[in-house]
Amino acid sequence: MRSAGRSRESSVEDLTTRARIRDVAVLRFGRDGFGASVRTVAADAGVSPALVIHHFGTKERLREACDAHVLQEIRHAKRESLVEASGNRFLEYLATAEHYAPVFAYVMRSLQHGGPLAKAFVDHMVEDAVAYLADGVAAGVIVPSRDEEARARYLVLSALGAGLLSMALDPPDDPADVAAMMRRHFDAITLPALELYTEGMLTSRRMLDEYLLYVSDPPGAREDAS
């Protein structure tokens, strides 16, 4: 019988191996799409295909684990940039944006692949966006919305749509080199996005007032502070 200490060591080793397989799967799926085989992922991780199946059961379960990990990375990055980042912290985030290139590539592949899993993935992104936007509202750095879920969905779909267009119109020379394309994308959108989010675009709220009169019962309607 193995000692308790040996069991704990094996458990930690299993978790480390599982995380390594998941991380290389994110890279491989982001580069080649979800047609990449378990055998290829196993070779990238330096393990046998049987060990991949041991940890995840099926390729579909492996993708679910990758989805969960990528969503967690996005959630952390968004909270850090929207709620916690200020001054030099925000500049540091922009300077290291390429660090998220594997996540960006994985998300783009998921959208391109389509289907129920892609829809569920986007729905999870919206749910997470509702949560970190609420944190921003509570922290006083984001203005409340009449419909928080609708705003979160709009922001997520806008960001994903812009990313997909960048991938289509300015594809990386090599599928493995998403970081350079991502840097060009961020450089192109950061200034106009910050202008829109911080200064706005319209000089009056006339269109909003007309729309609120047009809709009989706007969702999440609230009294304006103005």
Describe what this molecule looks like in 3D.
The chain has 226 residues and is mostly helical. It has helices spanning 4-32, 38-45, 49-56, 59-84, 88-95, 101-113, 115-139, 148-169, 178-199, 206-214. The chain has a domain at 60-215: Tetracycline Repressor, domain 2. The chain is 75% helix and 0% strand. Helix 2 crosses helix 3, helix 4 runs parallel beside helix 7 (115-139) and helix 7 (115-139) packs across helix 8 (148-169). The longest helix has 29 residues, at 4-32.
Features:
single chain, mainly alpha, Tetracycline Repressor, domain 2, 0% strand, disordered N terminus
**CA radius of gyration:** 21 Å
CATH superfamily of the domain at 60-215: Tetracycline Repressor, domain 2
How many alpha or pi helices? 10
- Low-pLDDT segments, ≥5 res: 1-12
- CATH architectural type of the domain at 60-215: Orthogonal Bundle
**Percent of residues in beta strands?**
under 5%
Tell me the helix content: over 70%
Gross morphology is: elongated
In whole angstroms, the N-to-C terminal distance is 72 Å
CATH topology of the domain at 60-215: Tetracycline Repressor, domain 2
**What is the CATH domain class of the domain at 60-215?**
Mainly Alpha
Query: What profile does the largest beta sheet have?
Result: none
Number of strands: 0
Organism: Cellulomonas carbonis T26
Keywords: DNA-binding
InterPro entries: Homeodomain-like_sf, HTH-type_TetR-like_transc_reg, HTH_TetR, Tet_transcr_reg_TetR-rel_C_sf, TetR_C_25
Protein name: TetR family transcriptional regulator
